[in-house]
Amino acid sequence: MFNWKNVPKGFLMGIVELVPGVSSGTMALLLGIYDQFLGAISRIVSKYYKQAIAFLLPLVIGMAIAILTMSSVLDYFLQNHTVPTHWFFMGMVLGVIPMMFRISNVKVEFSAAHYILIILGIVLLFVMSLFNGEAPPAESAGMAVGDLFKYFLTGILAASMMLLPGISGSLVMLILGVYPIVIYAINEFTSLNFEVLPILISVGLGIVIGVLGASRIISYLLKNYTYLTYAGIIGLLFGSMFAIYPGLPEGVTGWLISIVIFVIGFSISYLFGKEQNKSGTP
Fold first, then answer.
1. Which of 41, 207, 209, 255 pairs as cysteine with 215 (C-beta 3.0–4.6 A)?
2. Is residue 98 a contact partner of residue 271, using CB atoms and an 8 Å limit?
3. What is the pTM of this model?
4. Residue 124 and residue 19: Cα distance in Å, rounded?
5. pLDDT tens track for 131-173
6. Contact by Cβ (8 Å): 3, 54
């Protein structure tokens, strides 16, 4: 019943979901399982729930393994090599855009309304970045009721975005200043520090609600307003640069490392998109 060959696919989806840039939805698209993935989520609360669980459980297991094993690596780089790490994220985001242009069939399908949506997406994230002040140290994360509610709402928004082929849920967390806190909490939890459990529970509940609620909406939008939805995604991808950009590197060595890391991040996303293009997956 269970397709355990999907565990490695889930692992890849989990890795990219940790990175503010490429979403697990994008990876599902690149792996050729996006329609099945979205459809299975929307059928969780239907009479077909057994088939949905059989498809999703191996993916969830793979994603969980990736999140638990790779979060400490990302936490290290975020804490000790902030600027190059963010330049890597920028490269991964921009590397997705050629694929999005291709599946959007821009030259044929886009009109003035589509380009207006792109501009609105850029402006929206630019305005959001203006209100996104410097996040406090992750280890000083608050656990008051207001803080936990913020993590819960962030989880809902992040889950809604992660289902879209292009927008990462972790990018939403980064914009809202919660991403370093979540990565820190996961890392501490794997080190058996259970004091961070309220953070993980709040975010986790938000993610569950967001996934179940957003899957039907996104399926409807992609089915009935496909290219308008893609235009909005492209605008959000471009606009996300305002949130990810960490500033300029320092010194010649800093510049060289950041540029190389940026090119690596761009190449990873671009090559995945190119392989998806060869496979003919829509």
1. 41
2. no
3. 0.71
4. 21
5. 655 555 556 667 888 889 999 999 998 888 778 766 678 778 8
6. yes
